[in-house]
Amino acid sequence: MAVDYVVIVVYLAGMLAMGWWGMRRAKSKSEFLVAGRRLGPAMYSGTMAAIVLGGASTIGGVGLGYQYGLSGAWMVVTIGLGLLALSVFFSARIARLKVYTVSEMLDLRYGGRAGVISGVVMWAYTLMLAVTSTIAYATIFDVLFDVNRTLAIILGGSIVVAYSTLGGMWSITLTDMVQFVVKTIGVLLLLLPIAVVKAGGFSEMKAQLPTSYFDPLGVGGETIFTYVLIYTFGMLIGQDIWQRVFTAGSDRTAKWGGTIAGTYCLVYAVAGAVIGTAAKVLYPKLGSPDDAFATIVKDELPMGVRGLVLAAALAAVMSTSSGALIACATVANNDIWSRLRGVIRKDGEPDEVHDEVKGNRAFILAMGVAVILIAIALNDVVEALTVAYNLLVGGLLVPILGGLLWKRGTAQGALAAVAVGGLAVVGLMAAYGILANEPVYYGLLASLAVYVAVSLATRPTDEATLTAWRERLAGRAPEPRSEPAVRAHQ
């Protein structure tokens, strides 16, 4: 494994070097949080694909292929479909808003009264997403270095926290581009063909496995529908995804770059399912489907190649983890903390831009430490991720899409939808179980019903707010100054 160790160490050192380089670029709030809003198509596509295809899509996608065959691709397929829908229908308008968080969008649309509650829900989602991504380090480092779970989480988490804290979105963007290339080479160009060849080709795979493994709907219609509700809709409204949309240099980049990334996700989904199916032929009696990825990499790949593919898995986890971390810190600082403490310093002078960068950097560090500690204490990744997505979709999908699509939606309707949808999801998870499908089904329906009913029963959003909203959506309004500067000029 010596050659593999060298490959991994060089990769990890490169991630830290990218963080140091990104620190030199991130001199303003815009540069630190959204890479100056000037990414081109190639970099935007690569980084967007990197963040949505994390450990769950790589290790979990192969595991689903091992368990269900080709239909195990559906989870990652629904992620790709969500990214395609976001890119084609919404991304250009979202990019033109020139905001930093989803809650700021809700404030603009509804008149400044929906941000704090939605911020808390979004913070909880991004926190748990970062935690579940960080837990995945344990699997990879166990294969690599045979270290215990806690040390693996601390090692992997610390590297992500380090480069994210140093350079913010610039560091994350640069590392994600490297991670995208490593994932493409490691998973698509190396592991996929090697796994198929080792399993004897598709003809041998069909001969060895039940026909259900080659049924496109073998995973079950209800499961696919649930994936659509959770992952496709989750792609439309997650802060971690929107924050990448904000980095686009133009409407065209946001739309077509995201479309390319979504298409890449569909290819990646099929590849993961095929690798898992091949693993089922090679290792029919593994203890857990999620062991399929590590087992086939460890036993079937030659040295050097094995290190590169494990680096690809590590890249998948790191890209999602860093994206969720900066999203969590951005929401915590901009949507929650700044509203609680006020934005004017005690001496009456406005905060400097440099202070904004330092403040966001401090929040990334603080949230990163919290994520590592929670990841060490938490064992059930699936339950944590399910809670996060159920809260996100049940509480925020309706007011966000309603604000984008329905003029009659009001602030009162949005607040009621967040509260009722979120509480319904929590209550139903307690009643049916965290992994049940009913909480997100009924929670989403309750949120929609309340949003429509309360919006129709209350006064329409005032025309001045809607006019300002339309100007921002059309891209005719300038990027807002930082909140302290606005207050200072009043």
TrEMBL record:
It is found in: Membrane. Its main location: membrane. It is a multi-pass membrane protein. It comes from the Bacteria. PROSITE patterns: NA_SOLUT_SYMP_3. Gene3D superfamilies: Sodium/glucose cotransporter (1.20.1730.10). The keyword Transmembrane helix applies. Belongs to the sodium:solute symporter (SSF) (TC 2.A.21) family. The keyword Nucleotidyltransferase does not apply. Keywords: Membrane, Transmembrane, Transmembrane helix, Transport. InterPro entries: Na/Glc_symporter_sf, Na/solute_symporter, Sodium:Solute_Symporter. It comes from Streptomyces thinghirensis. It holds the Pfam family SSF. The chain crosses the membrane at residues 6-23, 44-66, 72-95, 116-140, 152-173, 180-197, 217-238, 259-283, 308-332, 362-381, 387-406, 413-434, 440-458. This is Sodium:solute symporter.
